[in-house]
């Protein structure tokens, strides 16, 4: 008996072979680890104009190519590493997106110095659940628009409101599991138990 046959999921979760496990074990659980948050922002950058199915299928290759998205390491990537990435047939070979990820690693370093952590900054934009429309009915919200604007102001690239909203959904800043999805209550409980990150020892 397959996962699909035994679970009532969000409609999108049954549209590709890799989606059910991702939906059941990752999507929507709140995340406070900087490296995981940065990785997801990078993967959302590569997804721009493509499908998440494409990116998820290549995720392990992305992790290997980008040194598991270690912020300090990626921020030091230069021409040699860019050339290697452009020659890597296992990832999306888009030079603008590769350069954006390297740029964003540097901006992430700045954010950690200024805010204490990426998580402390991003979670300030968690929407009030009472203001959100029903699940699966929108692709942006006022908070994703505001966060995208602030990130761009800080020099981040490929961080439009729709990209940021998808990031919020996947990293648990929003519970957008459909009504009736067996994961919705689990994510609600996880969000209730989750300790929101706070500003921690910024350098200024």
From TrEMBL:
List of residues binding Zn(2+): 10, 23, 177, 181
InterPro entries, per database record: Adenine_glyco, DNA-3mA_glycosylase, DNA_glycosylase
Pfam families tied to this protein: Adenine_glyco (PF03352)
GO BP of this protein: base-excision repair
Keyword vocabulary terms for this entry: Metal-binding, Zinc
Domain of life: Bacteria
Molecular function terms, GO-annotated: DNA-3-methyladenine glycosylase activity; metal ion binding
This protein's record includes keyword Cytoplasm: no
Protein name: DNA-3-methyladenine glycosylase I
Species: Marinomonas aquiplantarum
């Amino acid at each position: 008996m397959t996962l699909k046959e035994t679970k009532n999921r969000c409609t999108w979760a049954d549209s590709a072979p890799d989606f059910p496990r991702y939906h059941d074990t990752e999507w929507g659980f709140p995340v406070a680890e900087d490296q995981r948050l940065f990785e997801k922002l990078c993967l959302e950058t590569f997804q721009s104009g493509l499908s998440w199915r494409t990116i998820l299928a290549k995720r392990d290759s992305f992790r290997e190519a980008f040194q598991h998205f270690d912020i300090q390491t990626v921020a030091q990537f230069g021409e040699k590493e860019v050339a290697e990435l452009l020659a890597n047939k296992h990832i999306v070979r888009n030079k603008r997106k590769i350069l954006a990820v390297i740029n964003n690693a540097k901006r992430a370093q700045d954010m950690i110095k200024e805010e204490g952590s990426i998580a402390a900054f991003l979670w300030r934009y968690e929407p009030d659940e009472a203001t959100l429309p029903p699940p699966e009915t929108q692709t942006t919200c006022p908070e994703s628009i505001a966060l995208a604007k602030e990130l761009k102001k800080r020099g981040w690239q490929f961080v439009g409101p729709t990209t940021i909203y998808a990031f919020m959904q996947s990293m648990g800043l929003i519970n957008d599991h459909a009504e009736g999805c067996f994961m919705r209550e689990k994510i609600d409980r996880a969000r209730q138990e989750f300790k929101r990150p706070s500003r921690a020892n910024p350098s200024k």
